[in-house]
Design a protein that fits this description.
Blueprint lengths: L22 E3 L10 E5 L5 E3 L10 E3 L2 E2 L23 H5 E5 L2 H9 L9 E3 L9 H5 L2 H10 L4 E5 L8 H8 L4 E6 L5 H7 L6 H13 L4 E8 L7 H13 L5 E5 L6 H12 L4 H7 L8 H18 L33
């Protein structure tokens, strides 16, 4: 593994952590079997989003790199290439854990240079992935944000967020808190193959209901809508119906996009499970990582019409702060203290 471009050395203060601060661990328990955790002492934890991303937030916090959710389409896979780690199975099983994230965040929020800007979490890899059940970084992170009354949002597929519901309620009393849960479809057969490490869609929607019943408004990012596998009118209707029944305050559709790293891994999976679709995907994504604009608009229109039918609307700015779709693709983010964006 190559830590050189992230550790102390010629790059000086731009490094993310010290080379002597990396501890590698494995755990012989069923939920972590086959996984390796690289515990690091990060030098910074608040990352600036590239200006070209057009996201409704400028700053993010990411306590992990790599993700045990193992979603075959995950856009963040290419970030593992910075460490010379495999962007396929390595992304799913080699997890970097910033063990000092809570204390570091508290220090950075207390700096006189910090202006109290909104901080988004879960926009790169999921902060409530399985590793969080062992490392418990998010309670300290939420406590720091609460104590500084700093607005924040969380996007997750993890039902583990319910563990921190009391802290989220405390934070919501002093600052703006936005929660979005990602549920792209309710098809259980599709879920088992493309999101094997995640809680079920039904489990995630139950989490939405629990959050909303507790007074925490929660939106649903309907992502990804997967062409030819999860985009039939019947599938879209069933998903939006389930989202509405969960009590979500908004639903925002997002069509699958395939960046380098994710594209290769997803295409390999597609060839193994649905080889007849490979030519169709090659044509649909011939122009780059995004599906054609006409297709994205078609899906958005269908979902919004269904949402209106079932009594929920598209996400509003400020309501649960879900990720928004940019007008065009953005360039890749450089390695270092910048954040690859969700979209």
């Amino acid at each position: 593994m190559r830590w050189d471009n992230l550790t102390e050395g010629p790059k000086g203060p731009a490094a993310l952590f010290g080379a002597d601060a990396v501890v590698t661990r494995t755990f012989d328990t069923p939920e972590f079997r086959g996984m390796t955790f690289h515990e690091v002492r990060a030098r910074s934890i608040v990352n600036r989003v590239p200006g070209a991303s057009r996201m409704p937030f400028e700053w993010t916090v990411n306590p992990y790199r790599g993700c045990g959710h193992a979603c075959v389409y995950c856009f963040a896979r290419n970030t593992h290439g910075y460490l010379d780690l495999d962007t396929g199975i390595g992304f799913d099983s080699q997890i970097v854990v910033k063990t000092n994230a809570p204390e570091l965040l508290r220090r950075e929020l207390g700096s006189r240079r910090w202006t109290g800007a909104h901080i988004a979490m879960g926009t790169n890899v999921d902060c409530y992935q399985r590793a969080e059940g062992r490392y418990r970084l998010m309670p300290g992170i939420i406590e720091a944000l609460r104590d500084h009354a700093n607005p924040f949002s969380i996007l997750t597929k993890g039902t583990l967020i319910l563990r921190d519901l009391p802290l989220l309620r405390e934070a919501a009393e002093v600052t703006e808190v936005g929660i979005s849960v990602s549920v792209g479809f309710t098809d259980t057969a599709l879920w088992r193959t493309v999101e094997p490490g995640t809680p079920s869609p039904a489990g995630r929607l139950n989490a939405v209901r629990t959050l909303t019943d507790a007074g925490i408004e929660c939106g649903v990012l309907m992502a990804p809508v997967i062409p030819f596998l999860g985009d039939s009118p019947e599938q879209l209707r069933e998903t939006v119906r389930a989202v509405a029944e969960s009590g979500a305050v908004s639903v925002t559709p997002l069509v699958l996009h395939l960046r380098p790293g994710a594209r290769e891994w997803f295409t390999s999976w597609l060839g193994a499970h649905h080889p007849h679709l490979v030519p169709r995907y090659e044509r649909m994504y011939a122009g780059g990582p995004y599906a054609p604009t006409w297709y994205q608009r078609q899906i958005t229109r269908q979902v919004h019409e269904l949402a209106a039918e079932f009594g929920i609307g598209p996400a509003r700015r400020g309501a649960s702060r879900p990720a928004l779709v940019p007008e065009r693709p953005v360039g890749p983010a450089p390695a270092g203290a910048t954040q690859l964006t969700l979209l």
